[in-house]
Specification:
mainly alpha
């Protein structure tokens, strides 16, 4: 069975008609991509939250897959990790799999990534990722959702002051997140321009 998508995402533009099988392959590839970048992890002294490539994966999957497939992909990633697959980012304070990781101190970041994948996909379905001037604020908003939910969860779980929460869960990540957003917001419009030239030939 094949079907056309109403999404205006990059994935839907390159593959306008797909089957249940190809959709499943996209989900599997997306889960593998998120899992791979999650393993790029640098511990932050005094914080349970490592610096990882995971947020970059979420920004890319959300904006290229669209809302429906993006959320399905990240939800599958979460379910696989909770079920025992060692695919969450390595942490000095908890295992890289299992339900304890999702409900633990860093679980808010994972929930935030799920919400961000929905928002970024929704905006990408409406062509927000095709130009830098719309892609950049969309990505910034997606990142803000991840860190807002992550910080709220972290503060409540560890009962930290807000100063300590921000120092542990936000300040060490500002530069890295700015680079990730800049890379994504710059590269996607370039890809779109190349695709547009190809389709218009």
């Amino acid at each position: 069975m094949s079907f056309a998508s109403n999404s205006q995402s990059l994935r839907a533009t390159v593959f306008p008609r797909s089957t249940v099988l190809t959709q499943g392959l996209f989900v599997m590839a997306g889960v593998a991509f998120i899992s791979l970048l999650a393993q790029i992890a640098i511990p932050v002294p005094g914080s349970p939250v490592p610096v990882t490539g995971q947020t970059l994966a979420v920004l890319l999957i959300g904006t290229t897959y669209g809302a429906r497939l993006g959320v399905l992909t990240f939800a599958t990633y979460l379910l696989a990790g909770v079920a025992g697959a060692p695919i969450f980012a390595p942490s000095a304070t908890s295992a890289n799999h299992g339900i304890d990781r999702l409900i633990g101190a860093t679980g808010g970041y994972l929930v935030g990534m799920l919400v961000a994948s929905l928002l970024l996909g929704y905006l990408a379905d409406r062509k927000a990722d095709q130009k830098f001037r719309t892609s950049f604020p969309a990505l910034l908003l997606g990142d803000a959702i991840i860190f807002t939910l992550g910080l709220l969860w972290l503060q409540q779980t560890l009962d930290l002051s807000w100063a300590k929460t921000i120092a542990a869960g936000f300040t060490p990540f500002i530069l890295g997140e700015a680079i990730k957003i800049a890379i994504t917001a710059t590269s996607l419009p370039l890809i779109w321009r190349r695709i547009s030239r190809t389709l218009n030939k």
